[in-house]
Write a structure and sequence with these properties.
This protein is of the alpha+beta class. It has 2 domains: about 1-195 and about 395-455, FAD/NAD(P)-binding domain, CATH 3.50.50.60; about 200-395, no CATH class. The protein is built from 14 helices and 22 strands. The strands form 6 sheets. Strands 1, 2, 7, 8, 9, 10 and 21 form a 7-stranded mixed sheet that branches. A 6-stranded antiparallel sheet has the order 12-19-16-13-14-15. A 3-stranded antiparallel sheet has the order 3-6-5. Strand 14 (about 255-265) and strand 15 form a beta hairpin.
């Protein structure tokens, strides 16, 4: 089958690339075709699982505030962002009937909070411009010769095109169809690939899982999400903390910190704050360094003030008539209940056993002492030495990818192969959680499709 422009991959960047290309051709009155080849049964599989199915599709910050959340490739992304800004993306979806809302942190969602509505809107937009979407079409090979591209599918179907856009995504969430195919084709066509690692992923503290590192994955520090939780992991799993401080240390040196929400899950430490630090932590662990997280449950209270407050609360507990015949451990639990959510207490106690001091006394059994100073310290600096991280099986994005030095930022065209374009996660660009990655995919996809069409129009 021949098509003027073929887009490999029907995810966020691929759908946007196909639409932009077809829209440009239609506006020019050109009789040219655009085709998407998607390996999964339906397009937009990864969009469907973003934002826990609610689909935080963009972040409407302006460039100055948006760009600080791009962890790799900010200057490369800039031209595509200004070609399709966050606000423009929101207006585009609304023009095709999708009602949207903007929530805390400038995050944009479909009003329905159904990711399927975003996918349906993008697919309908493509169809309105005559884009042909072929699903269950897994491309197995890509070749370039005599100014044209020849593609072959796993089932033997053959395709050719004048312009090719690779929008295959990275390695994260392989169940969505992301298997790194684009890296192999880019490499075969002469492009270098920056080291790929999972990002925006769960960080696994020591003692959180019962299983040790899984060497067979080929990634140092990778602990599969399915490995069983330990007693500590079970005590913490499911707890969500709001507005806490989190900092990362590598080889004993503090390297980054953030403030926000932290989630303890079956994978480890996640949530917006955990994700923000995961990129540096994963890279450190992969390279054999030691990494640890410090959780500050009382970030708005100075350490000395907190120590005094804990002591005062302890005195109140001890003086309460209801505490007169209660063991010290139970009194400690009452104290902790005044300082943190009740469901956090078991995990906090397991991780910080030194908050209780136990002494054996001659002929008097055991004496337990509550150490208020240790409690205050743990509240400000609850340390988690990291054993590893969850891999691509549940990482939100892939850090690394096609070297952006070999791609023109103003067009998304390869500097090495004329007529070849890249967009989205296959490139060495990744961002924080909060709608930044999807917006980057939309922006780079739009620019790639626009310029692929323009090159055909001459």
């Amino acid at each position: 089958m021949k098509s003027d422009i073929i887009v490999i991959g029907g995810g966020a960047s691929g759908l946007m690339a196909a639409y932009a290309a077809a829209d440009t051709l239609v506006a020019a009155g050109a009789d040219a075709s655009v085709t998407i080849l998607e390996k999964m049964p339906r397009p937009g599989r990864k969009i469907m699982i973003t934002g826990k199915g609610r689909c935080n599709f963009s972040n409407i910050k302006d460039w100055n505030d948006f760009s600080v959340h791009i962890r790799s490739g900010a200057s490369f992304v800039k031209p595509s962002f200004f070609n399709l800004t966050s606000q423009a993306m929101l207006e585009f979806l609304e023009s095709y009937g999708l009602k949207t809302v903007v929530e805390r942190g400038d995050r944009a969602f479909p009003q329905s909070h159904h990711a399927s509505d975003v996918v349906d809107t993008l697919v309908n937009a493509c169809h309105s411009r005559g884009v042909k979407i072929e699903t269950e079409c897994e491309v197995s090979s890509v070749a370039f010769e005599k100014g044209a591209f020849a593609l072959e599918a796993a089932d033997g179907r053959k395709y050719s095109c004048r312009r090719l856009i690779i929008a295959t995504g990275g390695l994260s969430y392989p169940s969505s169809g992301s298997s790194g195919d684009g890296y192999a084709w880019a490499s075969a066509l002469g492009h270098s690939i920056k080291q790929c690692l999972p990002s925006l992923t769960a960080l696994v503290p020591k003692g959180y899982k019962t299983a040790s590192e899984i060497i067979s994955s080929g990634m140092k520090g990778h602990i599969d999400r399915s490995s069983p939780l330990s007693e500590t992991g079970k005590a913490l799993c499911g707890i969500q903390l709001k507005n806490v401080g989190l900092s990362l240390s590598i080889d004993g040196k503090a390297v980054d910190s953030t403030f926000g929400d932290v989630d303890f899950t079956d994978g480890g430490i996640e949530g917006p704050a955990g994700f923000q630090l995961s990129r540096k932590a994963v890279k450190a662990l992969f390279n054999g360094s030691k990494a640890s997280l410090s959780l500050d449950l009382k970030s708005g209270v100075p350490a000395e003030e907190l120590a005094q407050r804990v002591k005062e609360l302890w005195d109140e507990v001890c003086k309460d008539p209801r505490s007169q015949h209660i063991r010290e451990k139970e009194k400690c639990r009452i104290l902790l209940g005044k300082l943190m959510p009740w469901d956090l207490i078991p995990g906090f106690t397991l991780c910080n056993p030194d908050i209780l001091k136990t002494e054996r006394l001659p002929r008097r059994g055991v004496k337990t002492t509550v150490r208020t100073g240790a409690i205050a310290k743990a509240l400000k600096d609850w340390n988690f030495e990291l054993a590893g991280y969850v891999g691509y099986e549940r990482a939100v994005v892939t850090a690394g990818g096609v070297n952006t030095d070999q791609v023109l930022p103003k067009t998304m065209e390869s500097r090495l192969v004329a007529g070849l374009y890249f967009c989205g996660e296959v490139l060495d660009i990744d961002s924080d959680t909060g709608g930044y990655n999807l917006q980057t995919a939309f922006s780079t996809g739009c620019l790639a499709g626009l310029n692929a069409a323009r090159s055909i129009l001459g």
